[in-house]
Write a structure and sequence with these properties.
By secondary structure, the chain is an all-alpha fold. It has a single domain, classed as Cyclin-like (Cyclin A, domain 1, Orthogonal Bundle), CATH 1.10.472.10. Helix 2 packs across helix 5 and helix 3 crosses helix 4. The radius of gyration is 12 Å and the shape is globular. It holds the Pfam family TFIIB.
Length: 102
């Protein structure tokens, strides 16, 4: 659970997360999980926020069983696939979840 202050502070990024989630047609469960993952580990640098947003969407979709490919999420979020690949497992671990071992 995250504070209302976090949600207000990062509102523009959360709106962008919803926009990308719309493009991907993600379920509400995947979106909720992605928001939680994003707010758990928001980077200080604005230039890194989009990559973390994309990794959060990818990981959230996996957790919710609404998986999308890294490539699809990268395209929808306008980041490189490598940006997602290098971050999503750490996001899950930061949230106390165990990433898949495949």
């Amino acid at each position: 659970m995250h504070s209302a202050r976090d949600r207000v502070e990062y509102e523009p990024w959360l709106e962008e997360l919803e926009t990308v989630a719309d493009r991907l047609e993600l379920s509400s469960e995947a979106r909720s999980c992605a928001v939680d993952l994003f707010l758990t580990d928001v980077p200080a640098a604005d230039r890194s926020k989009r990559a973390v947003l994309a990794a959060s969407l990818y990981a959230g979709s996996l957790v919710a069983g609404d998986g999308r490919t890294q490539g699809a999420v990268a395209e929808a979020a306008d980041v490189s696939r490598l940006s997602i690949q290098s971050r999503w497992k750490d996001l899950l671990e930061s949230a106390g979840l165990e990433p898949p071992r495949w």
